[in-house]
Specification:
By secondary structure, this protein is an alpha/beta fold. It has twelve helices and 15 strands. The structure holds pyridoxal-5'-phosphate (PLP).
């Protein structure tokens, strides 16, 4: 059986069937039904957030989050190229101009010392990414945002359940977006959410996922359809019951990886972050001066049916569709470029056994 970079967490077949059974009686399959309401309540509790709006996926949640800020089109948004395409696409699809900032070389989140140089009179927001579940420097970002009156929208797709100084990742910035895609730490098959402090955003975010209709007879915004259905919500309700065990199991796999790989010359692991309760979303390894390159390691694992991922490579600022942007070009973000060429994300999921971690490490270290 092939070992992929990730493997979806699922409840037992019986547990899920029990959860969806009543949908055959209610015949209410989507449009903010009972399961949707319950998952919202459960997640508010788990993420300790005062407000949450569910979406059919993380990408549309991010578009909703950005759109809800009411920015004038053509304004600039500072973000990083070391992320999944979704982050940048959401900014651009909302009619805004992505401005690429480099990352720091320790945890690969946005380099807070390089943000201010990119701020112009057109800048309206920062969209930082808690990449791999590593928390951005939320304090410095808040300070910069306050000073320049910018909004902060976190791409928290990787940071479900992460806490910084005891505060949930859902509570930083103006809004945070979570992805509940099948490959993420917590999944609703496909799914996502926006969390926020300002409860007046609730009605906007609700309307934006439902064609912009405030009531069936009141078209308030031009918007699409991004509602989470009852089957997705039911999967979320089930998965949330087991999330703490799942994260703990991921943690065990990570401990084993660290035991085996730390100290090897030319192998760089992300340090555990201070004051952070991690979720072990990913296990990135940077091969810098190791006896094999990243691509060689990738190729060595493949014949063993072990599929690692070059996350995140290539950088988004090297994408063809962004070549006309003023800050396009990988050379403008040298740290991100350096990491993207050397990083490999190793398989990590709750059911990953110590035996398989050892097999992977044996191949890397041989
Ligand atoms: C997964 C992901 C998204 C998009 O979420 P979907 O639920 O797949 O739409 C956005 N940003 C990052 C960093 C992601 O990893």
């Amino acid at each position: 059986m092939s070992i992929n970079v990730t493997r979806s967490s699922m409840p037992s077949y019986e547990e899920y069937c029990e959860e969806i059974k009543e949908l055959w009686d209610s015949r209410w399959l989507t449009n903010m039904g009972k399961k949707h309401k319950q998952l919202e309540a459960d997640l508010k509790d788990y993420l300790s957030t005062p407000n949450i709006t569910l979406y059919t996926n993380g990408h549309l949640a991010l578009e909703g989050a950005i759109e809800s800020m009411g920015f004038e089109r053509g304004k600039e948004v500072i973000t990083t190229p070391f992320t999944f395409a979704s982050t940048t696409h959401a900014i651009a699809r909302c009619g805004l101009v992505p401005v690429f900032c480099d990352i720091n070389s320790v945890d690969y989140t946005i380099d807070v010392d390089k943000i201010e140089a990119l701020i112009t009179e057109n800048t309206v927001a920062i969209v930082p990414v808690h990449v791999y579940g590593n928390m951005c420097d939320v304090e410095k970002i808040e300070q910069i945002a306050k000073k320049h009156s910018l909004k902060v929208i976190y791409d928290s797709a990787h940071a479900f359940g992460v806490k910084y100084k005891g505060i949930s990742s859902a509570n930083f910035g103006d809004v945070s977006m979570f992805s509940f895609h099948a490959t993420k730490v917590f999944n609703t098959i496909e799914g996502g959410a926006v969390t926020y402090k300002d409860s007046s955003l609730a009605s906007v975010l609700d309307d934006l996922k439902n064609f912009g209709l405030h009531t069936p007879e009141e078209g308030k915004y031009i918007a699409g359809n991004a509602k989470m259905n009852e089957f997705q919500a039911a999967m979320g309700i089930c998965n949330l019951r087991h999330i703490n065990e799942e994260i703990a199991k991921r943690g065990q796999a990570v401990s084993r990886y660290r035991e085996r790989l730390s100290g090897a010359e030319g192998i760089i692991l992300c340090p555990e972050q201070k004051d952070v309760l991690p979720n072990y979303a990913y296990f990135p390894v940077v091969f810098d001066g190791y006896k094999y390159t990243r691509d060689e390691i990738f190729d060595k694992l493949k014949p063993h049916d072990i599929i690692a991922r070059k996350y995140f490579y290539p950088l988004i600022n090297g994408f063809d569709c962004y070549k006309d942007l003023e800050t396009a070009g990988e050379d403008k973000t040298p740290v991100a470029k350096h990491i993207a060429q050397r990083v490999l994300t190793l398989p990590l999921f709750a059911d990953l056994t110590e035996e398989i971690v050892d097999r992977i490490c044996d191949i890397i270290l041989e």
